[in-house]
Amino acid sequence: MRKIFSILLFVLLVAVLFFAGIVCMGVVQAVSKPSVPEFTAKYVNHPYERQPTTTTNPYTGETTITSPGGTYDNWTLSITVKNQKFTSTKDSSGNWTQLFYDVAYKGAFEDTWQILHGPSTSLSSYIPASKSSTTVIDLSDWRFWEVPNGGKIDVKVQALIGSQTEGMGAGGVPGGWYATYVFHGETGEWSSIQTVTINRDVVTPTQPPSASRDTPEASFGEENNQLDAELFDLDWMVVSAALFVGVVVLACVAVYEKRKTVRYTRDTQKQTTS
After folding, report:
1. pLDDT value, residue 44
2. Residues with Cβ within 8 Å of residue 211, at least 6 apart in sequence
3. Which helix (H) or strand (E) covers residue 19, if one does?
4. Rounded to 5°, angle at Cα 188 from 182 and 190
5. What's the CA angle centered on 83, arms 117 and 228, to 5 degrees?
6. What is the DSSP letter of 175?
7. How high is the pLDDT of residue 23?
8. Among residues 57, 204, 246, 266, which is most buried (max CB within 10 A)?
9. 141: part of which helix (H) or strand (E)?
10. What is the pLDDT of residue 231?
11. What is the pLDDT of residue 91?
12. What Rg do the C-alpha atoms of the chain give, in angstroms?
């Protein structure tokens, strides 16, 4: 019986080590390729109010209006991307992977795409996904000032999972002005194309603009984009199994120690009696 118990205890210890190894390997693993993103695109106006500005003559006290103020248009090409689930892991450099997006656009009747970010741009920090169910990317109207009413723009979106490190900036200074970023990870396929018609005559209700991602701040240093929601999202069964086996092992050890104590006490009493 004692031999069988020892074998069982050994098997359980091996199982615990096995499951622990799986869990640890789940943290540092190959980055999975992101799926093609789903998104909607529309041309919207986020008008804003500007207060009038005045100057006062220092000698006469007369007030002059220098700017009348009023309501000003703020047109943007607003892209809403449905965030996909992913498991944030550590790459070979110890960086937590994140979900990013990139956007490409062009005139509907031309062939050359303008890619928002990437190695060919001066600011190549990709757009980090938000921690909500969607990520909103607003492209400022200055990109489309030549597009007349009725003009059409093609848009597509790409998802990336990985991390990015800051490269050299102007003058060869790391992280300096116009620094580029190097992406490490998996790049997904471009989405299908959506065509947006420019119409600046549409009256839209006043609404605050979403957080613009046209020129996003570098997010390569953020440790856990969606980490708190997604880490081990696919491994909870493994973790639970490992914890269960651990509890069983501890229980077996406790029972073994108790039996050992009882046996020792019994043997001691026999020796005392004899």
Report:
1. 93
2. 136, 138
3. helix 2-27
4. 110
5. 105
6. T
7. 47
8. 246
9. none
10. 37
11. 72
12. 31
User: 54 by DSSP, 3-state: which?
Assistant: strand
The CB density around residue 44, as the number of other CB atoms within 10 Å, is 16
Alpha carbon distances (Å) from 77 to 92, 93, 261:
37, 36, 76
Q: Which residues pair with 76 in a beta bridge?
A: 44, 140
Pairing of strands 134-140, 114-115: unpaired
Look up residue 12 and give its two tokens.
């359980």
Tokens representing residue 84 in the block: 């996909």
Length, in residues, of the chain: 274
CA-to-CA separations, 139 to 76, 200, 215, in angstroms, rounded: 5, 15, 9
Asked whether the beta carbons of 127 and 211 are under 8 A apart, the reply is no
> Cα–Cα distance between 126 and 118 in angstroms, integer?
7
What local confidence, expressed as pLDDT, does residue 28 receive? 42
Report residue 135 CA to chain centroid gap.
Answer: 10
3-state DSSP assignment of residue 146: coil
In the numeric block, which tokens belong to residue 153? Answer: 């723009």
Structure tokens that stand for 207 in this block: 């609404």
In this prediction the pTM is 0.62
Token duo for residue 149:
């009413």
Average pLDDT per block of 10 residues along the chain, 274 residues long = 56 56 48 90 92 93 91 92 87 83 96 80 73 92 92 96 74 58 88 95 57 39 39 46 65 66 64 61
